[in-house]
Amino acid sequence: MTSDADTNDGRPAATVEEHLEQLYGSRMMRRQGVTAPLGFRAAGITIGLKPSGKPDLALVFNEGPDLAAAGVFTRNQVKAAPVLWTQEVLKSKQLRAVILNSGGANACTGPGGFQDTHATAEAVAQTLSNWGTQTGAGEVAVCSTGIIGERLPMDKMLAGATEIVHEMGGGLEGGTDAAWAIMTTDTVPKQVALHHPGGWNVGGMAKGAGMMAPSLATMLVVLTTDARVSADMLDLALRRASAMTFDRLDIDGSTSTNDTVLVLSSGASQLEVTQAELDAAVFAVCDDLCSQLQADAEGVTKRCAITVTGARTDDDALAVARSIARDSLVKTALFGSDPNWGRVLAAIGIAPVTIDPDTITVSFNGSVVCENGTGVPGAREVDLSGKTIEVVADLGLGDAQATVRTTDLSHAYVEENSAYTT
Amino acid sequence: MTSDADTNDGRPAATVEEHLEQLYGSRMMRRQGVTAPLGFRAAGITIGLKPSGKPDLALVFNEGPDLAAAGVFTRNQVKAAPVLWTQEVLKSKQLRAVILNSGGANACTGPGGFQDTHATAEAVAQTLSNWGTQTGAGEVAVCSTGIIGERLPMDKMLAGATEIVHEMGGGLEGGTDAAWAIMTTDTVPKQVALHHPGGWNVGGMAKGAGMMAPSLATMLVVLTTDARVSADMLDLALRRASAMTFDRLDIDGSTSTNDTVLVLSSGASQLEVTQAELDAAVFAVCDDLCSQLQADAEGVTKRCAITVTGARTDDDALAVARSIARDSLVKTALFGSDPNWGRVLAAIGIAPVTIDPDTITVSFNGSVVCENGTGVPGAREVDLSGKTIEVVADLGLGDAQATVRTTDLSHAYVEENSAYTT
Question: Which of these CATH numbers, 3.10.20.340, 3.20.20.450, 3.40.30.10, 3.55.50.30, describes A303-418?
Fold first, then answer.
């Protein structure tokens, strides 16, 4: 999906992106994010958590009237304090605000780290209450991203929690500032808003540039909507969208301790929507944020879509696609624009799925390079020099299929990740 | 274990390497390989499979009197023609010879590729027969390594099969030439011989510099012994040794289509040995070859041992150690000498094993960096600048443990693997 596109030529959609383009077209705007829906305010400020002095604290505030919310979280068994906190507060299915910091993950910080998270939520709640919106700490989600294993400087956090509420006071803007403040190794902020033809809106922002998969990322995503929907509808829409988007973005096979995706509804549009309408809109926003995350992944020089077709089941297709997407030898070959299809076959062969090596067909960018497990003439000449590479592997065993988005493995990835804390 | 070491100071062995050093000490020689045991000849020649013009064909020949043999192979479901062939011929538990080529894997080459392998074995058998040793193609194992998906130039292979038998005619030397001829991206040949105090010998050679794990590698290994042992004893010794050595060498999580480890016995020493003696000697040779493979892995700047202790079961310990050893973020941190223990915890948390994040202790090079899931003061100051890094993660759940050997993920790895076919 391209940003701010304004036409489609009426052809039947060949891809998810084209389908969304036809559905929503010019209604998707990347210049707006969480404050595009009615009833939300946001801010992003600098409180000195990052040595760079860049913005590092963000707030998203739901003015209501509704406070419905839902979330999905990392599957990593090692969960950061803010994840444990936010999972707990979401049991009420209500959120008034989300406070997010970059510059420190507050993961592996023990009971003290959890107390820090609690104190941060309490400070936000207290300031919002003083400011006129009665709020409890249990209505404030906390998200953190950055280095694992360091306590946050709580003097800065608590002062920042007060400051950012005042900062946000002025107006409905601030979504873009918030998107900037949650960045770590991201090079660009990521946000999008969908202005639904029905008159309601969904907005979102995301950060994350590595460590994505198999579930989410050091990925923080906040979605907002002004549709009138229950928390259970939000939960269903979010789970369905995540399973097809963020869960299938696999940059390096690593999975963060802090991954969090939240969705908040203000109901401020006064418009009720169906589950199907909500599902489609939330999916569209997640899909767009996902492609922005992929494009900005650490050290990426190629955006790669790995599609497995002809599998016996959807789960099989996904497992094989992940095996290809995570293989270091496949990923370095993609970096080198090298149509080394043998590595794709080797990666298929180690997937935890029974395959038949003699029925596999592989194509790169639409050119068949391997048929029935054997190379075809000209396979080495396929041009992979572009920024986008499409790998399709047909297992020849059934009708199921799945696509995983990934990137190449480049020098820049190694560089960026070899010197992150030092 | 160091090569050609000649002393030990009588201390109790603290590591496997020290134990082997005490057991065999100066009896391990890296200047010798498959022809160290009596009854074996070998050769390595150049037949033009590699653009570089370097040696590319090797032969190991068993003069007997025994022809007992065993093998272990890749677990990849996509198996190269020579693997399928050699698995078949090994059903007889006898081998007269092994022909090995670099410069082409003969994988994913269809029925034609299998016929090529058969024809190569036939040519070796025919030449050996002409030369005075009656041999059938079914007694000739074939191993290939190199690019996947290309047919081998059979004119060169068949002429080479004849030439190499004549080349080997001259004497018992040639083991070192063979070790050179099987190299691909290896920078040094890898061989070792154990001259057992009991008067019998085990020799071996190996190639492989990437793509090792979870089972073997694009790793080819041939072991020889002059002990009088049955094929079943060889099989048992090889399986036990492989499980603890090659199977636990995990460079990049990829697994080749061509991995093969063969062991041949000539019985020429006339000495019978026990299973325990054979197990120990085969393990010692495999362990030494394994450390040579690790040291020469593609683009390696650090040799890393990942030990997981305190697991509930050995399988759990191994699964967690593999999860750490394969994590791209851990490996790039090791490359950068960065004591980023949070990434180790994140990698433990995504292992397919139930863990308790609050009972994990991690140390780098003997310094505790994380206790009960929380960082300790000074953790960021641990010195990882050396060539060898030891990571120990204690899960605090039980008594089982396992060690996986791996390497860092460096620029050179990306460089080497991004331009392999082009």
Answer: 3.10.20.340
